[in-house]
Amino acid sequence: MNKRALFITWMLMITISGLAQNPGTFVGYGTLPVKTPDSLLRRLKHAGDIKEKILAAQPLLAFHASHGTTDSVIFYAQQLIAQVSESPDKAMLYNTLAKAYQEKGLFEEALRFYLEGIKLTETLGDSAAVNDNKLGMANVYFARNEYNKAITAYNELLATTGDEQIKHIVYRQLSQIHLEQKELTKAQAYAEKALSFFRQSGQLKNELQAKLTLGIIAELNQHTDTAFSIYNEVINTAQQSQFFDIYINAGQRLGDLLIAKQDYENARGMLTMVYANAMQWNDMKAQLKVLNSLRNLHAAIGDYKNAYALMTQLMGISREVQDKQNKREINELEIKYQTAQKEKEILNKENELSQQKTIKYSLLIGFLAILLPVIGLLYMYYQKLQAQSKLNATMEEMNQQKITTLLKDKELELLKASVNGQEKERKRIAGELHDSIGGNLAAIKLQLSNLGIKELTKQVDETYHQVRDLSHDLVPQKFSNTGFTELIAGYLRQFNLPGNAKISFQAYPPEEIDLIETTLKVEIYKIMQELITNAQKHSQASKVEIQLTQFDGMLKLLFEDNGKGFSTETTRHGIGLQNIRERLKLFDGVLSIDSFPSKGTVIDIEIPLKYEA
Questions:
Q1: What pLDDT, on the 0 to 100 scale, is given for residue 581?
Q2: pLDDT reported for residue 70
Q3: pLDDT of 157 higher than 80
Q4: Can you spell out the DSSP letters for 144-166?
Q5: DSSP-derived secondary structure letter, 500
């Protein structure tokens, strides 16, 4: 039995014991409640050529797509797609696969098939299918938190499509983007518009998704009773209609709401049940959300051991999702699509310029012999003005970038100078104690020994050893007078300024971390300073998360940002990271880096606690 199987068994045991005390509170699925109708399977099995197979597969794919069983959609679509030529049927399968991967949380694979679908449907001249794929691509941008690209894509669809269905799906998606950006009034307006349309047109699943958005808005507006009622309604309806993806999302939101209300027992039952179902349906996107909620639950009740275990499980699934995404191929397809779009724009502009030139030539042909020298001079003067204007704009932009860079460098230099000054002063005082005062005491001891005054010689000897020990162990006063976790939190608060990244810091458990030996505290503090400096200077991140955990004889520092990231294979590590590795050598510590362009950076540091405090 592997680790994940053991984990789900443990979670289900907790759920059963919790629900035994609260009978009838929540209802979950013990086994996968979707059984493919035999009639659909028989129809596909007895289909003849590929055309008949496509017709037979369409209701089967629609059945599994409506119930959120994306693995089945992917299985049947992949069986068919290799047998189909470049046709509307292949375009349909591309779109079906893209939506299934999107529901599964594999956004890179989803984007791949949407881009393939756009290329094929543009060749076929199917504008409705092009818009459907563009809608899917915008949804992927939203799922990857690329909100500006998503909003641009949605607005282009609203401007070009006459399909009311697509328009109201766009309204629903815009409501979710404004919800993520905490613009609750706009989010509610879009969600209510979408809800009205889906309710009138009898689209229950889309109606439930819009209701779930309104529940989240109510929760953020502190209307917890309204949110609780909406979540329960969505969960019950989704369960009855077997919309399992919506059931999982609503269950996770209800679990978070119960945590906020400090109803930890019911929260654990709800979240554990939802996580078990998400694992059964292999929904990794849902697993990540629910695991994060369970981690917050155990941290809230002080169960740091299980919080750490859940964090480890969360990181494992996140890496598994990334490993399944063929990033290089997808990025190439996206670049090809964007290049094709640019080529179209350039061609249109060239056609417009050509038409304008034809009109001008027809008007000026009678005066060409007289005005030709003048036109030549004016054209040269115009070119000179254009070049000068571009040069001025470029110089101004470069100067502004230099000023910004200099200001940021000065700020970092001042911060480093403050830390280096403290360390230099510490070394100076230690040297004075050891060389001057220690030397004097040694001389006095020698003279007293010659005089034969044993008792006084003993006292001077003890004083000499105390001064020597003090010079060896001297550290900044703040590490002695302040709790270590509070000291770090105070240091991080100075960066909470407009324009800087938002920094969050958690320590599990803080009272044990405060007891680690002083020398290690100093090095961890300096390492964290170096990491913050690198993030502020290079990452362009808007959010930084730091976790410091002591568990099972190890001190673990997890530093994560959502910045621009970098390629760990081609980028050389700077002096800052080299300094960190040198510091860690003193304690047999290990540093690992997980980063990818536009995906942020995760730095994981582990140090064995084998030194006495």
A1: 86
A2: 76
A3: yes
A4: TT-HHHHHHHHHHHHHH---HHH
A5: S
User: pTM for the complete prediction?
Assistant: 0.45
Instruction: State pLDDT tens for residues 522-561.
Output: 889 989 988 888 888 888 888 999 999 998 889 999 999 9
Q: Are 457 and 445 within 8 A, CB to CB?
A: yes
The rounded distance, in Å, linking the Cα atoms of 115 and 102 is 13
Which residue bears the tokens 């119930």? Answer: 67
Q: Which residue has the tokens 């060389």?
A: 435
CA distances from 297 to 179, 180, 259 (A): 23, 22, 6
Q: Per the structure block, which two tokens stand in for 144?
A: 């990857």
Per-position DSSP letters for 507-525, written without gaps between them: EESHHHHTTS-HHHHHHHH
Tokens 């005390």 locate to 21
Name which of 137, 151, 74, 129 is nearest 108 in CA terms. Answer: 137
| Tokens representing residue 389 in the block | 């204007």
Taking the C-alpha atoms of residue 305 and residue 291, their distance in angstroms, rounded to an integer, is 14
pLDDT at 283 over 50: yes
Phi-psi region of 524 (alpha: psi -120 to 50; beta: other; left: phi over 0): alpha
What the block records as the tokens of 510 is: 């803080």
Contact of 115 with 130, CB cutoff 8 Å: no
CA distance 234 to 68: 15
DSSP 508: E
Phi and psi torsions of 192, nearest 5°: -65, -35
Judged by DSSP in three states, 286 sits in helix
Phi/psi-derived region of residue 553, left when phi > 0, alpha when psi is between -120 and 50, beta in every other case: left
Lowest mean pLDDT among 40-54, 191-205, 241-255, 372-386: 40-54
Query: What confidence score (pLDDT) does residue 108 get?
Result: 86
Q: By three-state DSSP, how is residue 72 classified?
A: helix
